[in-house]
## 1
Amino acid sequence: MGLKGRDLTSIRDFSRDEIDEVLTAARRLIPYAEGKKSSDLLEGKVLVLAFFEPSTRTRLSFETAMQRLGGRCVTIADASATSMRKGETLSDTIRMLSHYGEAIVLRHSNEGAARLAAMVSDRPVINAGDGAGQHPTQTLLDLATIQEAFGTLRGIHVTLLGDLRYGRTVHSLARALAMYGTELTLMSPPGLGLPAEVREGIEETGARLKEEDQIHRAVRDADVLYVTRIQKERFADETEYQQVAGSYRIDASSLVGAKPKMIVMHPLPRTGEIAPEVDATPHAAYFRQAFLAVPVRMALLSLILAGRLP
Amino acid sequence: MGLKGRDLTSIRDFSRDEIDEVLTAARRLIPYAEGKKSSDLLEGKVLVLAFFEPSTRTRLSFETAMQRLGGRCVTIADASATSMRKGETLSDTIRMLSHYGEAIVLRHSNEGAARLAAMVSDRPVINAGDGAGQHPTQTLLDLATIQEAFGTLRGIHVTLLGDLRYGRTVHSLARALAMYGTELTLMSPPGLGLPAEVREGIEETGARLKEEDQIHRAVRDADVLYVTRIQKERFADETEYQQVAGSYRIDASSLVGAKPKMIVMHPLPRTGEIAPEVDATPHAAYFRQAFLAVPVRMALLSLILAGRLP
Amino acid sequence: MGLKGRDLTSIRDFSRDEIDEVLTAARRLIPYAEGKKSSDLLEGKVLVLAFFEPSTRTRLSFETAMQRLGGRCVTIADASATSMRKGETLSDTIRMLSHYGEAIVLRHSNEGAARLAAMVSDRPVINAGDGAGQHPTQTLLDLATIQEAFGTLRGIHVTLLGDLRYGRTVHSLARALAMYGTELTLMSPPGLGLPAEVREGIEETGARLKEEDQIHRAVRDADVLYVTRIQKERFADETEYQQVAGSYRIDASSLVGAKPKMIVMHPLPRTGEIAPEVDATPHAAYFRQAFLAVPVRMALLSLILAGRLP
């Protein structure tokens, strides 16, 4: 066991004990992520950030995490600004990058890119999103947010709301939550439900899973209301999109009847799914969730690169 | 008082004493800016540079300033290369960025963006140019250049030459100089004069302000000749532009009759406003001005982030 | 003598003794490049990377090299994303950049850009490729690869294969090898031979140089087979290109009859010039060559910026 030198291409690369180890580490690293404590644990180490599609918040939170641990970064922020991939295979690119640092954080538009990269690289590869595939560090920070709010992941009732078909974030999260015996409620527009194979994977674990079509009931039962974007390009016309998007929009009135400790989460950026008036309510957890990206990624980098915490 | 934790969205956010404090600090930091001395004052701190429009020299001088103080940077160099702003509000973006570092340096195309950012951010926001609005750190380095040349800002005669209507640099500078009782002479092409509200703001301070239309007289009287770009797009046709631009061009012959200690300043990049032959004259101060960007920004970062100097 | 403070715009800026000094230093720095040892030799120093055309592998290897020595970087990754060069002369840009760090690494599309930059900059300029001109650090890492494989550069038989007309990499390398009395064999498609002036420069040194048109003979005689890209745009039509490219492609069968210690090199990225099956043979040296970019650039930065090694 031990996470030192390990790849993270899918949340399923880690056992539940290993996920727990990362979450416990992340909690301990919060003062470091806030800049209240500092560390040179990763001094002398270089992290290669290879973002073949741009993702500013994921990139910046990794760069902050690495640097708050005393490490350094070399970064490809956007492959369109490079000539590197002109006809070069991903294997060759990764082999080259693995010479420039102690680990590679990879963002790529193709599903499976991270697993391929992990196979050819001598150095650990961390998947920062590969197309319709995985985004395991997002899942870890989602779990960290729930655990911080409730002190546990066991017995929590999580409602996933919005586009559950195309959102890779909710697929990974649902699978991970199932490991903890979480109760899941799904509410999605017609045609945007959870894919059958994800659903079956969850049901196999024995997790309780039900569907809901009334937003007030969905809100009332939830400990966690996880909202995702509904993308315009999934709809035949603007009118249909507006209608659906409108009926999935969370505002202050949607939260009437919610449990006092219920939290609203969102992977951000939001466009109109959550009204700004929700920000001032005690339910809003999405900015905290964004912050937790830093300690969670610090925890991962510490454990993978140094095998220990500051 | 004290600048620790303060925002800088407009030069008017700082009192004259505070401006003096920054200028004095900048002088002390020159050996650090030149790399002759080094400091770890900001070790463990992260600066977020959010350049939603590119500005290479402003960005690089901030990055150099932060790193020469031992700090680290995370950078958005160009928003067109990010997916971040797809429909996300500036408020949400800033709240997210405020989790990644101890302060935010913001460059944005919209006037007022910095003030909005300062309102939503828990961390200090430094305006690095917001559209037609403010660019206060440019003003500070302009003041530092004049003060270094003359030992004071009092009683200096500054001539502003060129487009005084659209150049936000000269608006801020003129307002700041007025605080020091500077004598101002304005010379601009027809239709490109100083806007009435800027002019009135200056006259209210009691500062002396006059207009000039003969370049030799403007040069002869000046201690500082501050030259700005005249932009082609302000003119109806190319011929008119060429004529005006030609008559505002400074070359060696324009400087005949200048005071021996007169300095020529320019925010750079120049296109044709100052002939290269001027570079070799003792009057050329624009490269020194570009260098002073580093100690001035080091002074600001030291005072805002640490509340003290190295 | 001594390399401290020196420019490197062309491989001919360095004497053979100086090249040897860099190569010896690079060998010593391999454990530092691998992250097994760390150094703070360049702490407090800033390297300006000005890439006016993108070149990801050159940029990242310089950034890694600088940071593994404790130094910092400020980077222009791609000039298209900056407004800096809007009408500004290269001289002005370089003068400005020379204020932001202890040395400038310049990549530019125009031949001669590095030499011009070195003339106007107070700080050392390292050429990271200027159009059809020079790329001296590539030449140094090519030499380092050959020397590591054979323990010497003397008496080595190097075969240059592919487009020898437009590949600036092979021009510089051929000239440098000629200094060491290397035996050179050239094999190129019709019309893509070594330019006459490069050829004459090599012959003047007394180096042995011959042409070959049979790939099996070229392989059989070589200690080093240096393969370069054959670019589609050099050919009148696709068919002609495919035919030529196909006959210059190296695969496992091409290597039958090679000397046991023969190495295959390539500046990378490759597109189809070397089949992936070659990677697993003991002849493949191109990934090692890519890695050696880091210690070679560390050696240069140490000697130019500090005048000594860690």
## 2
Amino acid sequence: MGRWEPNSRGRLQEAALALYAERGFDQTTVAEIAARAGVTERTFFRHFADKREVLFGGSAVLKERIVTGVTDAPASARPLDALAQGLDAAAAMLGEGRRDLSRLRQTVIAANPELRERELAKLADYAAAVSAALRQRGVGEPQATLVADAGMTVLRISLEQWSSGKDDRELVDVARDTMANLRVVTADR
Amino acid sequence: MGRWEPNSRGRLQEAALALYAERGFDQTTVAEIAARAGVTERTFFRHFADKREVLFGGSAVLKERIVTGVTDAPASARPLDALAQGLDAAAAMLGEGRRDLSRLRQTVIAANPELRERELAKLADYAAAVSAALRQRGVGEPQATLVADAGMTVLRISLEQWSSGKDDRELVDVARDTMANLRVVTADR
């Protein structure tokens, strides 16, 4: 119990995602996750507050990265370019994770209405932070909110594409391509 | 009880929104709503399945209007123009409602995390329907999803603006102006 458990956090994540995908999120217990990872329940709770945090942990750090990307863009950058810098930062961070685990995560969330609503709420929270960062840069409303919300759509679509297994590119490249698509489709008139 | 109750649906809505705003959604009972509206609880349940339906009823009709607007746009219309027709249809329908009640509704939803998540889920559901309608028109992905999601942001922002009391214009005009802002901010590079 007290012994050293190498990478127990990673093994817990892997075990949890596999179980959520196999049996459903609601049907999985912390005891089962710990058993599959070969650690104690106590170890689980040293890493995660609850079952949901396995899916949504790290989101405060991610939000901060996106906002910093937007804030640190050159003063001359247009709103969409500042957003692109925030998305680059987010994609760089998320792209370091394992693609197969990201895919499992998407599958688990898609299968559970409550988790879907939580994921949407998380993205809405990021969008509000990005739109505040854009206003700080002098962008007015409704432009700031329009750009921030579009950015979170770009992030969501890119993550889905990247973890679909149908696209070999790095997440940051997928996200840049999706941004380019946003520019094209909105300029098309 | 059995007597004719003129506009009991409208009075129930008004009473419910006022009570939700005064005491909070969770703290309000159907019995209190019925009492304030001067009708029986039975009458409440003839019009609404539960307390939440007072806030989210009519959303199936609204979704159908938006989708029909998109679908019926001329074949030559670009994605953003087809979207604009869907938003016009939505704004025309919503704009017939009372602005003060729409404002109360926004306030109530903003104050309650569960209702906020439900509202986001509703908008995501509309967005999925709009993006399917755009794909039917031959729009590819990720363009269809990018345009559909941006459209739901436009709708949300426009409703907030219209019901804020700081804008005298009709909802359809506010929505057109927000669409114009979307075109400008995304074209700006």
